[in-house]
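Format notes (please read before filing issues)

Several people have asked whether sequences and structure tokens are stored in separate files. They are not. Every record keeps both together, in the order shown below: the sequence lines, then the token lines. Line labels are part of the format and must not be stripped during preprocessing.
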Amino acid sequence: MEFLYSFFYSGNFIPHGHCYLWKPDLVGLHLISDAVIALSYYSIPLTLIYFVRKRQDVPFKLIFFLFGAFIISCGTTHIMEVWTLWHPVYWLSGVMKALTAIISFYTAIILIPLVPQALALPSPAQLEAANQALQAENIERKRVEQELRLYKEGLEELVEKRTAELAKTNEQLQQEIIQRQQSQERMAELLQEVESANQELNDFAYIVSHDLKAPLRGISSLSEWLLMDYGDTFDDPGKELVRLLINRVKKMYSLIDGILQYSRLGNFKEERQQVNLNDVVTDVIEILAAPENIQIEIKHRLPIVDAETTRIRQIFQNLLSNAIKFIDKPQGQIIIDCTENNSYWQFSIADNGQGIEEKHFVKIFQIFHKLSNDEESDSTGIGLSLVKKIVELYGGQVWVESEVGKGSTFFFTLKKSA
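Then the structure lines:
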């Protein structure tokens, strides 16, 4: 009881006003200053509380409340300064200062580990860029869906046409049963037509597989990179949207595989392994079957790299097929070479074809950008952009050096270690 009594009892102490000799101007100066500071301190927590209530999504709410408590305790110490001008309750004033010190120290300790977390929050520019990337992927997905519907309608029309022809043939066979030999010959002709149609479907399936699966693979890769790089900053609905996009791409793959069930390519699982580029490039050259007037030479022995065979094959197949396509000389020459650096391999594919203007050096690696405007050209504008994505996926770079009329040299790098 005596301790509590001494808290609020002045005892033998004298108020602060005696220290100021009770000069009205000096006492007034301290009184007004401390009062204004206290009122200002009390108004700041009210503003913080209003802000936190309006923005429920604000992180680190605890630090806002600690700041509020710290500021209120600071304001209270100034109120005590006003009170002790006339009432020397210095024990109570000291306890208020001690409480302020505890809150201040605790706030400072809590604030230190929050600084890295606050710095790790994504900026508005990063969130906007991610949103724009998702919108672009959504537009690309809708475009591919539209193309797939068109291909499906074309296949359905072709099947209906062949079915109608078979029905007509059966009717003719029933009417011409007496002319057995003629009917058998007619049936043989129809079977030959069906076989030709099946071959056409197989060839068509290869084109569909190449032109549709490449952009789908790009969408899937971009989605997985986005989830990998920004997954920690996304909330659960955001992650679910990215996963939904990936799942829908996989469903489109399944739909294409169902339509292309007679395709010779089929599906296979890509696995990262030691790839002998000499074998891969040799196989690609044999598959491309360049015209007799075009000579393809591997200048130096190629290395063994740690990669996925299918992706590496796509790089060389796209670059070599482009080189063959744009050679306009009577005697064409393509040279494949490789040089070794400290941490990576640098590959080059040089040709003596038409060449490329310098203003197109960057654009040709952009998706759907084609140098040829020929409507009959089979170029889709995807090959080089696919090469660029694959090379960058392995941490490398791709570029071109060219002179119009003399030829082009495409370079790309691959890291030695994964």
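For reference, the curators noted about this record: The longest strand covers residues 332-340. The radius of gyration is 39 Å.
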